[in-house]
Amino acid sequence: MADRAPAAGELTCTRVFDAPRELVFRCLLEPAHLTHFWGPAGVSTPLETIRVDPRPGGVFEAVMVSDADGRRYPTRAVYVEITEPERIVWTEPGSGLTTTSVFRDLGGGRTEVEIRQANAPAGYRTPQARAGFATSLDRLAAYLGPRGGSR
Amino acid sequence: MTTAGTTGEDRLDAAFIALADPTRRAIVARLARGDATVSELAAPFAMTLPGISKHLKVLERCGVISRTRHAQFRPCHLEAGALDAAVGWIEESRRAWSERFDKLDAHLRDLQRGPAADQAGTAGG
C-alpha cells in the first residue's frame, strides 16, 4: 500500500476503517481505546499500564504483555505533535524512532490511517539519509528478507 | 535478548546508516549474490575506485561487509547478520501495525454496534 509514499519515505502502513475520523483519532489517543488494540496479536496492553499526556512534550507510556509467557514490553514515547483530528506524532527518546499517524477523512464514515515510522536519530536525519530511506528501504527489506529475516 | 541491551540498537543504527545511500544499497544487493572485488563492484557505477572505496569503508565500519586481509584483490563479503537487525525491525514493525490495525478494526466495529457491545473487547482473544 505504498501508493501514496511520503516524501520522507519511511516505513509506512496504511489501513482504511469503517468509522468516522474523530472516533479513529480518539482510538489512537485515549487509553480506554488503546487497551483494546495497542498490543499486536498475542499481546495485551492492560489499561492501568497506559499513560497518555496528550500535548507536545507529554508522555505516552504503555506496557505490552505477552499472552503466552507474561513477558512485558514497555513503550515509552514523547508526543511531538497532536493536531486533532488529523495527525499524531511521537518519538521514542531511547531509539529515536519517530512515528507519525495521519488520519484522512474519506467521506461516507470511512477513515484512512497512515502510519509512518523512521528510526531517525538527529545524527543522520540529513536530507541524503532521508532520500536514501525514501528510495528503497522497504524494497531492500523484501529483497533481503528471505535470507535475513528468518531468525 | 542479551545482557548488552545497547548492542542490538547500535547494530540497528549501523545498519540504517549503511543502507541510507543508494550506492551502498546497490553494493549490498550485489554482494548478496556472492563475494566481489572492488573493481567488480565499481563496474556498474559511474564512479571511481576511490569513490567506491569510500562507500566500502562505511559498510566495513558498520560491520555490514568484511574484506579479506591477505588476498591480493581483497574480495568483499556481505555479513548478512549485520543487516538482520534492520530487516527484522522493518518486518517486525510492519507486522505489529498490521495486527494492531486488525484489532482496532474489530474494536471500532464493537464501538459502533452500540454501547452494549462495549464489553466485547475485553480480551479479544
Question: What does this molecule look like?
Answer:
The complex is a heterodimer of chains A (151) and B (125). Chain A is of the alpha+beta class and 151 residues long. Chain A is built from 3 helices and 8 strands, in the order βααβββββββα. In chain A, strands 1, 2, 3, 4, 5, 6, 7 and 8 form an 8-stranded antiparallel sheet that branches. Chain A starts with 10 loop residues before the first strand and ends with a helix. Chain B contains 5 helices and 2 strands, in the order H-H-H-H-E-E-H. The longest helix of chain B has 34 residues, at 80-113. The model of chain B is unreliable at 1-6 and 117-125 (pLDDT under 50). The interface between A and B is large, with 43 and 47 residues.
Number of strands of chain B: 2
Identify the biggest protein-protein contact and residues per side: A-B, 43 and 47 residues
Number of strands of chain A: 8
The SSE string of chain A, one letter per element, is EHHEEEEEEEH
Proportion of residues in helical segments of chain B: 55-70%
- Strand content of the residues of chain A, in percent? 35-45%
How far from one another are the termini of chain B?
Answer: 27 Å
Helix content of chain A: 10-25%
Number of helices of chain A: 3
Strand order of the largest sheet of chain B: 1-2
Shape of chain A: globular
Low-confidence regions of chain B? 1-6, 117-125
Structural class by secondary-structure content of chain B = mainly alpha
Q: Estimate the global geometry of chain B from the Cα principal axes.
A: elongated
List the keywords.
heterodimer; A: 151 residues; 3 helices; 24% helix; globular; disordered N terminus; disordered C terminus; B: 125 residues; two-stranded antiparallel ribbon; 5 helices; 2 strands; elongated
What topology emerges from the helices and strands here?
The complex is a heterodimer of chains A (151) and B (125).
Chain A: E1 11-17, H1 21-27, H2 31-37, E2 43-44, E3 51-52, E4 59-66, E5 72-83, E6 87-91, E7 97-107, E8 110-119, H3 127-148
Antiparallel strand pairs in A: 1-8, 2-4, 3-4, 4-5, 5-6, 6-7, 7-8
Chain B: H1 5-19, H2 22-31, H3 38-42, H4 49-61, E1 65-67, E2 76-78, H5 80-113
Antiparallel strand pairs in B: 1-2
Helix pairs in contact in B: 1-5
